[in-house]
Amino acid sequence: xxxxxxxxxxxxxxxxxxxxxxxxxxxxVAFRVLxxxxxxxxxxxxxxxxxxxxxxxxVLNVKGKPIRYGRFNGRRSHARKAYVSLAAGxxxxxxxxxx
Length: 99
Fold this sequence. Notes:
Elements: H1 3-9, E1 10-13, H2 17-26, E2 28-33, H3 39-50, E3 54-62, E4 66-69, E5 72-75, E6 79-86
Antiparallel strand pairs: 1-2, 2-6, 3-6, 4-5
Helix pairs in contact: 1-3
């Protein structure tokens, strides 16, 4: 796979109460990913960027909610989430150590 493409697949980690709870219970990490990202690409990107072993990847498409801007109707953009299960003993630390 193209390494340049893999660097762009992961948009951001999802840090919320739900994702933290899932991470603690199932050793999973949630990411927001590109709309056309595939499971093998997501797995390769996480392994490349964070140097961890990935056990499995579950992908979820989230529809954007309809929304109103004054008198105009609009829609939030659609999103794609990936729940990445890490192998036993693996961990990703987003806080990082400040030097």
